[in-house]
Amino acid sequence: PAFLPCEFRDPGLVNCNWLFLKSVPRFKAASRNNITSLSLLSNRIHHLHDSDFAHLPNLRRLNLKWNCPPAGLSPMHFPCHMTIERNTFLAVPTLEELNLSYNGISTVPALPSSLVFLSLSRTNILTLGPASLAGLHSLRFLFIDGNCYYKNPCGRALEVAPGALANLSNLTCLSLKYNNLTAVPQNLPPSLEYLLLSYNHIVKLAPQDLANLTALRVLDVGGNCRRCDHARNPCVECPLGFPQLHPYTFSHLSHLEGLVLKDNSLYSLNATWFHGLDNLTTLDLSENLF
C-alpha cells in the first residue's frame, strides 16, 4: 500500500510504468528512503514540478521516457510540450541516471552535477550551447539520438556549438545518431571512447575532425552517405563525388577496436585508412558498393 498505484520491487525500484498517470505520485513518508530507482515510463505526465522528486532523498535512477512525445512520434501525431520547472532535478542531488527521451522538450533542463547517464533522445532539443550541459563533470554517457530525422522532423540539423561538450571531462560515450549533422561536432572531449554518429549527413571526413579523440575505441559513422536503392526507410541519396574520406582520417586512433563504415556508398577500400589501427577487431563494411 505504501507505493500504490505503483509496485515496489527489490532492491529499491518503484515501477509506475503504463499507469496513465498525469502527475508524479506521492509516496508515504516512511517508505521514501527505500526508493533508489523510479520508473514512470509511458504515462501522461506533461508538467514536472520543483517538488515532484525532492522528497526522495536516495533517488539515483529516474526514467521519464515517453510521457509527452513529440508529434511525429505520438501514435495520434498530437503535439505535446513538457514543462519542467527549474528545480525539478536540482532538488535531487543524488541522481545519477536520467532518461528524458521521447518527450516534447526543446531545451536542456537544469541538471544536478551528480549525473552519470543522460538520455535526451527523440526530443525537440535542436541546439546545444556551452551552457546546456555546464557543470556535469561526472557525466559519462550522453545519448541525443533522433532529434531531427524522418520520424521526428525538424527541417534542419541538430546544432552543437563548438566546444559545447568540451568540459564534460569524464564523458566516455556520446551518441548523436539521426540528427541531420553535416560535420563532426568540434572540440569534443578527449575522454571519449565511444562516438556514434550513424545516419546523419556527414559525407566528408578528415584527420582534423577526430584530431583529439585519441582514446576512441568505437567509431560509428555508418549510413552517412547512403545508397537509396535498397533503403527500407526515407533516404537522402549520397551526392555525386562523395563520400570523401581522407587517407589518414583514422591514422591517429591507435586504440580503435570497432569501426562502422556501413551503408556509405563506398566503391573501394583504401588500405591507408587502416594504417595504425593495430587494435581493430571489428570492421563493418556492409551495404556498400564493392
From TrEMBL:
<protein>
    <submittedName>
        <fullName>Toll-like receptor 9</fullName>
    </submittedName>
</protein>
<keyword id="KW-0967">Endosome</keyword>
<dbReference type="Pfam" id="PF00560">
    <property type="entry name" value="LRR_1"/>
</dbReference>
<dbReference type="GO" id="GO:0005768">
    <property type="term" value="C:endosome"/>
</dbReference>
<dbReference type="GO" id="GO:0002224">
    <property type="term" value="P:toll-like receptor signaling pathway"/>
</dbReference>
<dbReference type="InterPro" id="IPR001611">
    <property type="entry name" value="Leu-rich_rpt"/>
</dbReference>
<keyword id="KW-0325">Glycoprotein</keyword>
<keyword id="KW-0732">Signal</keyword>
<keyword id="KW-0675">Receptor</keyword>
<dbReference type="GO" id="GO:0007249">
    <property type="term" value="P:canonical NF-kappaB signal transduction"/>
</dbReference>
<keyword id="KW-0472">Membrane</keyword>
<keyword id="KW-1133">Transmembrane helix</keyword>
<dbReference type="GO" id="GO:0032755">
    <property type="term" value="P:positive regulation of interleukin-6 production"/>
</dbReference>
<dbReference type="GO" id="GO:0051607">
    <property type="term" value="P:defense response to virus"/>
</dbReference>
<dbReference type="InterPro" id="IPR032675">
    <property type="entry name" value="LRR_dom_sf"/>
</dbReference>
<keyword id="KW-0433">Leucine-rich repeat</keyword>
<keyword id="KW-0677">Repeat</keyword>
<dbReference type="InterPro" id="IPR003591">
    <property type="entry name" value="Leu-rich_rpt_typical-subtyp"/>
</dbReference>
<dbReference type="Pfam" id="PF13855">
    <property type="entry name" value="LRR_8"/>
</dbReference>
<keyword id="KW-0812">Transmembrane</keyword>
<dbReference type="GO" id="GO:0038187">
    <property type="term" value="F:pattern recognition receptor activity"/>
</dbReference>
<dbReference type="GO" id="GO:0005886">
    <property type="term" value="C:plasma membrane"/>
</dbReference>
